[in-house]
Design brief:
Layout lengths: L33 E6 L3 E7 L5 E8 L8 H18 L7 E6 L2 E3 L4 E5 L4 E4 L1 H9 L3 E5 H12 L8 E6 L3 E7 L2 E3 L27 H5 L1 H12 L5 H10 L3 H24 L4 E5 L7 H14 L7 E4 L6 H11 L3
Amino acid sequence: MTPIDGADAIPDVEKDASGETLAAVRSLGPGAPALAFDVGGTDIKSALFDADGTALGLRRTPTPVVAGDRTHAILDRLDALAAELRDAHPEVVPQAVGLVVPGIVDADAGVGVFASNMGWRDAPLRDLARERLGLPVAFDHDVRAASWAEHRLGGARAYDDAVILVIGTGIAGALLVGGRPYTAGGYAGEIGHSPIADGPACPCGARGCLEAVASAGAIARRYREATGVVPDGAKDVIARAAAGDEVAAAIWDSALDALTMSLAQLTAVVAPEAVVIGGGLSRAGGALFDELRRRLAARLSFHRLPVLVPAELSGNAGLIGAALRARELT
């Protein structure tokens, strides 16, 4: 079969954004074989999970770029990926498909309510994918699916009430209440766009969103704007702060304060047992986790302090969550 444009033939070992190889992808355990797709604005992660829960053919493929609504271009890409995966592994017969996407997602209705970077609004993605792929489709939000994977197999597996926070270029979140995702029709979990200050302006159109202050992307951007120096990401700003750079220290301190404020509000309202933090900023280690623990304890009084733990499934959590959701249909 001719490989998909912009991608090589499917390999059985692929590195994800954190450098993790297929061998490190956590097995789902025994269950029905399933196709899984994690669609992002830049790339699509795909794999075929066999009956032992092993991911086969894991890889990234560029997300099609077209003007306006990308729905049908993405479905074409998923169809081609599914065919390649099946051809490469004819011994594995998938029973269902897991599909997760960004934006506002009504998983129960199977609808992509809105995603500005995908150009869709009220798109019946589950039904369209089912028609195209010829299999039952489990449809969900990418970060909610990742949170479900962390609950089943990763850092949140010991907790039924948890917040999963992914801090990267932006900030995304999901809530687990009583061991189940709390969705509110797709609108719950927008922690990155919770207001924590009067500014700066956020690309979403609001002001003072957590994401505009404390995401890895915002930390690097704010340092660049303040100094004219282009840092090598948030990690570079944090290292400069530790080395005595006063501008970097002020930016990192304000990011920590913003995260503390957001976690304090979540603790007071939702009272999670744990906050599981993933994304690129989570690799800051003690500079992030120890400081947040200290500041959160100082901020609150009678509240039950959540345990702060790192996510365990790295960049594969959304894909694993998609596969787990697909298995629930069989």
